[in-house]
What we know:
18% of the residues are buried. By secondary structure, the chain is mainly α.
Amino acid sequence: MAENKFTRQAQQRDKQQKEKKIVVRDAQPAVDEQLGRLEEDMRRLKVEFDIFFNGACRRPPYDTKGRVETTIKRLADERSLSFAQRYRYNSLVARYTSFRELWQRTTQDREEGRGPAGVARSTPQREAETRSTFVCADAHRDVDLIRNLFDALTEAKKRCDEPSDDLSFPRFHRTVALKTDELKKQLGCERVRFSIGIENGRVSFKAKADE
């Protein structure tokens, strides 16, 4: 009888451990998905702040900022994070903290009229012509930079009510890579400067040698 009792207890413990492992495994994809969304939202937030500080948008991207901070707080209370997930989360939080401090300083300078942002604000015509710039040396490999360029172009088109449904990142990446190679060869330069702005209510997308 005692032996059967011990056997049942051992089987019950094994069952509980297996169920616990299943729960943990099921939680992994959900956490990874949240981390992926957080990284994507942070990247988009950086592009939106760049557009705002360059004068192409009047309102700061508070909606995206709030979404990022909500996700950060939710993941901070998540106890099922693995070591790798916790490391990735901490890295993202550190990057966001650095971005946020930069945005706060830039916003303060803008409000007090210091620096280029203050000049752009005091001259509406120059503000309309302010451009977001991206310097690229190897468009084939620098996927993150091209992704930021793509997001900035898409955001500018959205603000000007220009269609962007047919604009896909893979095709855009290929086009930019070919254009970069072509300009480097024609102009004898090592890097190409792409710029996006809004002129007379329309999106302007230009490329030239980086001097």
